[in-house]
Design brief:
Length: about 450
């Protein structure tokens, strides 16, 4: 079922990310002074505000211009196929009906369940619906204090709160296509607990890489980042219309509309072409409306995509040709990213790929060759002809066989050599200089 869910998620390609919360009301300004430090959705932290004064904004959170029908229709007009809303950001204010705290939108001036309003409208208009959820919660008394990096540990009582709120979100709002966790520094057990909860309540929901500890269903790139190496796993680029902020900022320099449309459309094309999903963010204003410039940019992107839709081209990757009885060329090296915690985020090589073209049915022996000898033992899997062959490479060895007497039919075969396990969790290749040695044994 998960493999089918992965493909369904990849087919979404392009989505609307929405940052919205109490921080939308000040819009990057506090008592008439612009807060220029940090993202505007984190104004409580970066602006050094009295927390009580910030949380009192719930009395002003009445949302006279919040129109879920228009928001979802705009996403569709932009060519988007799913929507992800910040159900709870770092400030702990919940945009959903929860029994865990009164610090939520149903108890605020608007008396609305924002998550329900948007999920219902997505269902009506045919968009998939996803949820952002922050690991950290500045409002919760037992959580760690606000820090400068937000990569904070999750005390046991805080984890219980997270599980309770996630249970509500995954139980009360229909089908969820994506759970987008963010920040924090959960333990391996805490990440697993959240992942297990998702599998129990929403087994087709895709979980992003910021669940941490390699428990994810897809890799989350850094904010506004594209891969610098070929990837071998599902991935997504989260991006904002402005790199300076994700939440609404009234004084944001918005730039030239047409240039912004061109820039973001080209980025969407690049991400989808290379195999990823593109999640483009807007920050709703404090009254609940889409800011005018952002509305025009989304519509402009939609106009461009109507002329030329997004398309994948990952299958067009050119693999080096390996031939029997000839020196093996340098492979295409595929990577995954570490999913341990935010500050260890880096690509690690896991897979080497070639293509083999056979002009006749053949029996082969396939071995490996290392330039300097294996630094430490490692188990690798060779995939060829639709079959897998595992082998343990011994420390200090420079060569050995994967298989002899392998019968391959005439035609083109992709050959992959990789470490063991799921594509998102495979260990790093000990030796990336390994090359294949193919020898013809006899023609069939």
């Amino acid at each position: 079922m998960k493999r089918e869910a992965v493909q369904q998620w990849l087919d979404l390609q392009f989505g609307l990310f929405i940052h919205f919360g109490l921080y939308s009301l000040p819009g990057g300004v506090w008592k008439g002074k612009p807060i220029t430090r940090g993202y505007s959705e984190q104004i409580l932290s970066h602006g050094y505000l009295p927390q009580a004064d910030y949380e009192a904004l719930t009395s002003q959170f009445n949302l006279p211009e919040f129109d879920p029908k228009h928001i979802v229709a705009t996403a569709k007009r932009a060519g988007m196929k799913y929507l992800v809303i910040t159900s709870k950001h770092h400030d702990g204010f919940c945009l959903f009906d929860t029994a865990t705290t009164d610090y939520n939108s149903t108890k605020a001036a608007c008396r609305r369940d924002i998550v329900k309003d948007l999920s219902d409208e997505c269902r009506k208009q045919g968009l998939a619906f996803g949820i952002y959820f922050s690991w950290i919660d500045w409002h919760f008394a037992d959580a760690l204090p606000i820090s400068s990096h937000n990569s904070d540990q999750i005390p046991e009582s805080h984890q219980k709160l997270n599980i309770a709120q996630l249970t509500e979100l995954l139980s009360n709002y229909g089908s969820i296509c994506e759970l987008w966790m963010d920040m924090g520094a959960p333990t391996d057990e805490q990440s697993q607990e959240v992942y297990d909860l998702v599998q129990r309540l929403q087994p087709t929901c895709m979980v992003n890489g910021r669940i941490w500890n390699d428990k994810q269903d897809f890799l989350t790139m850094g904010d506004n980042q594209l891969p610098t190496v070929p990837l071998n796993c599902p991935w997504q680029t989260p991006a904002s219309i402005y790199k300076e902020t994700w939440g609404y900022r009234s004084w944001q320099v918005r730039g030239n509309r047409d240039e912004k449309i061109k820039e973001l459309t080209n980025t969407a094309r690049s991400v989808v072409k290379e195999g990823g999903n593109y999640l483009l963010n807007i920050g709703l204003m404090g009254n609940g409306a889409i800011q005018g410039f952002e509305q025009e940019v989304l519509e402009g992107i939609g106009d461009e995509l109507a002329k030329e839709p997004l398309r994948r081209e990952t299958m067009k990757r050119t693999l080096p040709r390996v031939l029997p009885d000839q020196a093996c060329p340098k492979p295409l090296m595929l990577h995954r990213y570490t999913g341990t915690e935010y500050y260890s985020y880096r690509p690690i090589p896991t897979t080497l790929c070639w293509t083999l073209e056979q002009d006749e049915d053949t029996r082969l022996s396939i071995g490996w060759l290392s330039e300097q000898g294996i630094a430490k033992e490692q188990k690798l899997c060779l995939e060829v002809g639709g079959n897998r062959y595992c082998s343990s490479l011994q420390k200090s060895r420079t060569s050995d066989f994967f298989i002899t007497g392998l019968q391959l039919k005439k035609g083109t075969h992709e050959i992959c050599l990789h470490t063991i396990g799921d594509e998102l969790k495979r260990s790093e290749l000990v030796d990336t200089t390994i090359r294949l040695v193919l020898r013809k044994e006899e023609t069939l």
